[in-house]
Amino acid sequence: MNRLPAPFGSRIDRSRPIRFSFEGKPFEGYAGDSMASALAASGQWVLSRSFKYHRPRGILSMTGADANALVQLPSDPNVAAERTPISEGLRVSAQNVNGSLEHDRDAVMDRFGRFLPVGFYYRTFMGPRRDSWLKFWEPIIRRKAGLGLVDTKAPHRHFDKTHLHCDVLVVGAGPAGLSAAIAAAEAGADVVLCDENPEIGGALTYGRYDPAILSGLSSKLEALPNLKVLTGTVCNGWYEDNWLPLIQGDRLHRTRAREVILATGAIEQPAVFRNNDLPGIMLGGAAQRLIRHYGVRPGQSAVVLAANDDGYRTALDLLDAGLSVVELVDPRPAGVAGSLEAELRGKGVAIRNGATVEAAEGTAGNRHLARVRVGGSWTACDLLAVSIGSAPAWQLPCQAGGKVGYDAGMQTMTITLPQGSVHLAGAVAGADDLEDAIASGRRAAANALSRLGHAVAVESPVTPKTIRPRYVQPIVADPKGRDFVDFDEDLQVKDLQNATKEGYREIELVKRFTTVGMGPSQGRHSALATARIVAEATGRTVGEIGITTARPPVGPETLGVLAGHHEVLERRTALHARHVALNAAMKPVGAWWRPYYYGDASSAGEAVREEILAVREGVGLLDVSTLGKLEIRGPDAGEFLDRLYTMAHANQPVGRVRYCLMLNEMGSVVDDGVAYRMAQDQFYVTATTGAVARVYADMLFWNAEWRLKVDVLNLTGAFSGLNVTGPKARQVLGALESDIDFSRDAFPYLSGRDGMVAGVPVRVMRIGFTGELSYELHCPSSLAPSLWDAVMAAGRPHGLRPYGLEASRILRLEKGHILIGQDTDAITTPDELGFGWAVSKKKPFFVGKRSIEMRARLGQTRKLVGLNFPAGTRNIPGESCLVLRGGAPVGQTTSVGYSPSLGRHIALAYVHVDDQAEGSRVTVKCRNGELIEAPVVAHAFFDPTNARQEI
Amino acid sequence: MAAGTATRIYPFMPGGAADGIKLVSGAVVLSDLTASPRFGLKGCGSAAWLAAQGIPLPAVNRIGKHHGMQVLRLGNEDILLLAEGVGETLAEVKTAWHAATAPKGYSSWREEGWAWLRLSGPRLAEAMNGLCALDLRPEKFGPDDIAQTRVGHIEAVTFRSPAGFDILFDITASAYFARSVAAVATHIDQHNA
Amino acid sequence: MKLLTCPMNGPRNIDEFQSFGPVRARPDPNATADPEWSRHLFRAENRQGVVVEWWRHVPSNYFFLAERDLVSNEIIRTFDASEPRGRA
Amino acid sequence: MPLRLLKYGLSRDYPVSGDIPATPALKPAYDVVIIGGGGHGLSCAHHLAKYHGIKSVAVLEKGYLAGGNTARNTTTIRSNYITPEGIAFYKEGVELFERLSQELDFNVMFSQRGQLTLAHTEATMRSFHMRAEMGKHMGTRTEVVDQKGVEELCPLINMDYGGALEILGGLWHADGGTARHDAVAWGYAAQASRRGVEIHQRTEVQGFEVVGDRVQAVKTNRGRVACGQVLIATGGMNYDVALMAGVELPIRCYPLQAMVTQPLKPWLHTLVSSVSLHTYLVQSSRGEVVIGGGSDPYQLYSTRSTLDMKVHLAEGAVHLFPFLQGVRLLRQWAGITDMTPDYSPIMGASPLANLWLDCGWGTWGFKATPVAGKRMAQTIADGRVPDILKPFALERFETFRLLNEMGATAASH
Predict the structure, then answer these.
(1) Most buried by CB count within 10 Å: which residue of A107, A566, B81, D315?
(2) Low-confidence ranges of chain A (pLDDT < 70)
């Protein structure tokens, strides 16, 4: 019904009709139509209801920048109808309506506006009760808040992230951007040109320009293989060191450009007068886009408010599209519009100078524009095209360090960028005349090229041809209001004025108090008018007021495109498949997957008990490959460990293994492990699974300072570890082909041996986390499955069982061995653990030494002890239960478990230092609040004399 | 240390840690070279010993060639030798090193610690751009260059091979890495569908 | 993503690096009274201006020094720890 | 309709309350000079004027009122910390918020909808139990919930991820909530100025005149001001301001970033955060989903945003709520946080007799706006530190009496 014949409609394909629905009603458009254009073609101008007053709203800019034209898709809220293409069967509905778009019960809000002035919610909804806000008022407000509806059942969508590198990135493929990109590529630079529109050309595609200009630029473009064009691609931010997100549909190109040319154009600004938000009132550029891009007639009978040449050209375009232009209103004095004025008069259009639109009125329910008031008299029309000036698209330049200024004489917002790798071209730089824009593109390219080291002729700066004010934005405040400054947030002139009266005079405070500029358009259409209103209300200049900080993103971007797709990091030991084959219950521990126990979940408890029993009475096998494994090599290796760990290692004999305890500078325990001296200049050191990455980095860091002659190698993945433990461990190893003598005398506790076992080169350490006779066999990871198989086979006659992490934890708790991070916290000292034995008193220095000495002087407050819960104790505290003394918390349980070997529950806990003696009774508060008493015992609950591990 | 009769099993082999995880092929191809011969030295004395064997050492982060081996200089005292195929020279160097007396540097155990995968296929560049943030355009990253960087969000060493990019990374993350490449390949197929 | 130029690996995205904080003077632990030692432990170089700090290039485990402006985030210089530190 | 609204509707002209008077001329001297016109400074001014009768108070603000971290934080209010000292303090903070709108006659929209923190590891579950046990002991509403409990509290959370990011349970803190950050500051400003406190915007402190162990005067870009007592409450600038007085604080500054989506109809009714993902989400009463997380990884005095933190937060948000893929982000921003070694604030005395500290608020300061102001006012009025603040003294770093709250601070500020 509003469709124009070709050649109007460059984006649509009339051979491909597409059916979709809006608000449940069927509509038809063409391939290439946006939702808004297809609806407008069918006479549907109202697209949404406004945020606060639920007024009908429609097309404003056709750029998709503001809330007026946001719609709801079944799984996608807040979709820009002006930009988003239609597709077959698409179901579109309006947002923020109570009922339907046509009959919105909340439209009554428009009549109550006077009861809801700016900031009203700060002054009421507080009573009558203290929690009235939470219980009564907020639920009401929350229901009214928000726009779109999120679909919590939305199907999963694929997004991906990639990287892009170029010498020059040009943002914006209008005339300035095209000319910049061509100039840069012609000089040989690797250029990327992106534009959010589906085609290149910018204003050349919808403005009143000679088509030859665009086709000339296009053909040059196509001849340049080093110029990559990304249309339909939004550059949505500028970040440090020219790091820019280019969003192309479902793909995020994280782009690194050596030079950036911003040719982002200008944002046409609306005029402010009563009812300036009625559907049918749109920016001149929107009318032109409807006509040229989509072949949609924006109305029948138009008034044009024009304060620049573009407005006059719009009027001519409207005539070409078959509209009657009732009148062109130009706030400027007569004679400034030049030849366009004569052309328009020649076509019979009345031009009224020195006047502006003072108000508008709508049809019933304000569903469409009915008439406008100019000079006190009303003129009927169904379209008001507003072309009164624009603001440079400041978002990207400001993110890149640009400063916004205001040229009062020219009534122009200006942007200045510091000298550097970001350049402006075209309207964003103030060059909005076509020839100026093209020249400024070339100049920006020349600047970028010379910074890249290309020899280029210097282009002279572009001096804009026109020097008359080009931004004449009428603000006609109306005593009755509805003179909207910010359409997203339904803010009117008086709202801003009232905010300043309350004392919110700084622009950032005005923004926060009124929410101006905080909606989906982020101030695109309101920032300039706001600055002018606040300036006038506070007696300052527009330059002094300024605009609020332009934060990224430039336009709305989905969380999906940012998040992309990310596999969760997963690490597997070389024995992973062996565990799976043995029906292990594999669970994540950090990124690692480890067997918790072997067997079905239904019999987990039984499996763990049997595994523990096997270790205590027979022999067990544990995959300890996730342990950190570090090799310290070099002439200073001993000295290095002496400085890093609390025990003495420089004097550690070759072939011996020592416990090692690491402190941080504060003297807190951060890691433990063992160090096996393989050679005079070589140690094999273990670290806890969770800490090895940090321990390794810290080792390198310390040595960056110390510069000792050592090399630190992280062998965590390269080597695997198998712990063979239990009274029968020696028999199992003895059954294997090996050049190592595993006998008690030849291979005593806390020693290490290199050799071959079952054809696998191994490093074996006699250490014990379980308290049983243990040999920890470490080997190159590719051979670990072979070694595992051999040990399993040799162990079969001895009842060897592989055991998992659950059993391991109980076994270690029965021995009172601590787990760093579980039984220690950020301030645990060796003394608090009773680890004085592990701290060398002779070494002049180790990390943390000075601090533990000082902390000892300051006084110890707590001690980690064992707690015993006799069989039959009714209430066993969980881990992290408080230990109380005189009712005050003095510590907590850190590890609690049932010991099948002892037949009772045991725990490690921090207690008051005065309660550390064995036999002291401490009070523990169970999770249900019950207080129980437990006796303090030594750490080693099982085999306190440690006889078993040394057999 | 020679391995007598024991069988070596690498992640993507039957019984390996990533057993069952498929390496993608199609527009993007991932292949496994982990079992190929490698030998690396690291730490004080490494460079001098290798140089004394007549192996020319390139600058740090560059690749040299020597008798069918690639010589990767990962640091002043961190050198990795790679061979595809039999790797006779590499085996000789390894044997000589084991027999030699110190100072001779220390083994870096890269053949055990790092998986070695090769990315290739018609959509190689697109796949690599998805996996790695580095500028790997041919004019910026040549056949003799090494990048110690991040690929698929984990630390890795990458360099060009005639067929594509070779990637060395933590062997325990093999299954994860193969899944990450497969995911990127899927996205490429979908984006270009 | 900010770029940091590693003296060994060249310019890289800063997420390839780990910050180890400004270079700290290390008083002789045996010649420092407790209060001064505490101050050493907890004090922080945090003045607005240029600091010299330790960075680790994680993929290559190379440690180096950088002069960086804590206000502008400008990296003035990066260099190997064996080079003279200038401002440190 | 509440009566207040009728007043607006029936008045011919908008009835001006005059929340923030225009900046007056600086007087030569004040009893108390508060440096920093953010929430904390204004709260202290209010408490001095209302409860201690001290009205010769000047609040000096370098920029515009409450434009620093008060404006930039993501408004979490909670008391589910680890140390008894911390819990006691923040608990009082939550209680003050419960009646703050009435106190200020300004609706700060305190919305106590509870906070759910998620655990993906057994270690986190263990620390949650610790916080719950301590919280219960101290009389707050803090409890550990299992997977089923998580689903009941927030049915939309995706529980299907296995592996390292499987959700094992959560810490449910029914006392947790949010408030409108600006309103808190403006409400205090309005109340304080009505009682005679002067608020000086665009007034930058450039130095101190220190004689002996006292600050004699504060030097500003608008002239010298003599002072009886001085409070430093300048958020991200605390280190620098204190240094001008010769006081070196154990503080490092890091940017903290956050972002917000377009307005949506309400779907998220509690605060949700995840320790492992370093992400938290809360839906404001405007319908926007505020998303925040961990600090930047290196020291910086900058409020620039990064793409990478945004990507990280989006990954976390989509991980927890996959249907957010199609939701659009509107804005991101950052604040400068003054981090202490133990993630607890520094409050109380300084080495100078009349210089008081309200510093080290890192990422956790907003929730303490009422209680820090109240207790610092008491400190200044009495000239001595009340018991509840004593554990937060600067000296704790000399005596190793740290209040380690790192584990209770990492994911949810």
Answers:
(1) B81
(2) 464-471
